[in-house]
Amino acid sequence: MSNKKPxxxxxxxxxxxxxxxxxxxxxxxxxxxxxxxxxxxxxPLAFAFVLIFHRWNIYTPMRFVGFGNIRLLISDxxxxxxxxxxxxxxxxxxxxxxxxxxxxxxxxxQKIRARAFFRASFFMPVVVSGVVVTILWxxxxxxxTGLINVALNGLGLTKIGWLTSPNVAMPAIAVMATWxxxxxxxxxxxxxxxxxxxxxxxxxxxxxxxxxxxFRYITVPALNPTIILVLVLSTIGGFSLFIEPYVxxxxxxxxxxxxxxxxxxxxxxxxxxxxxxxxxxFFWAIIVFVVVMIQRRVVERTETERM
Length: 307
Fold this sequence. Notes:
The structure is a single chain. By secondary structure, this protein is an all-alpha fold. It has a domain at 76-127 and 170-306: MetI-like (MetI-like fold), CATH 1.10.3720. The chain contains twelve helices and two strands; from the N terminus they run H-E-E-H-H-H-H-H-H-H-H-H-H-H. The chain has helices at residues 8-51, 68-75, 77-108, 115-127, 130-140, 147-154, 169-194, 198-206, 211-239, 243-248, 260-270, 274-306; strands spanning 54-55, 63-64. Strands 1-2 form a two-stranded antiparallel sheet. A hairpin with a 7-residue loop joins strand 1 (54-55) and strand 2 (63-64). Helix 11 (260-270) runs antiparallel to helix 12. The longest helix is centred in the N-terminal third of the chain and has 44 residues, at 8-51. The termini are far apart. The relative contact order is 0.12. The mean pLDDT is 86.
């Protein structure tokens, strides 16, 4: 019987062949995702970028216009009106959403009866269709028959044109959007609260810290990453505002609720200006990126200075 040991090079060769097989399997596993990204993300982005330099209404061949769409965007007052409307919406919606989400996350983190029921109840609007929620609030905001104005009238107060007044329509939509989306951020903040060690609060209580001091010096710093996530998601969601003004006001009154995405939709599918719509889309993506970066820098710098 031979006691000859296997050749060292043969063992290395077998290991290399096994590694090559594993690598091929990995490539095969990743391939569906790569194809999906190329077909549903890469190709549409590339096609939209090409559209920026063309005029196209789907039915007729593309016509090259160079920087014509970009010049049109710069000189289009409705684009800048939509941007101002969206920033106004964000100015109301993001702080309100963060404050409401943080308040209810704190309440739902306490030991109360039916806590699981309340947690599910606050999350319920998130999973309901946005169109259904918008139609519901449209009925609540109705001038003559809406429950809100009926209640105001019953109290002897003047009815408010929630969706017909240029000064009130966007704040009304911001409140509605907060009610629709706040459940998601309550869950995120609740997870963050449950990750804070309880001994920190116990030590602070022994030192005589008040409830506000514990919230300011323990809760807020510990939740900083979650707060940044909430701010970023809320901002991106706010820039994607579409269903609410589309269903409730159509962008009116007097373009006071016209959002960038709604204006893009109208240019593409009402007026058939696909090239100009693509230009608005890329412009909007750049604005979102810049605003989110500034927002994140400000929050992180504020937190660093506080520490």
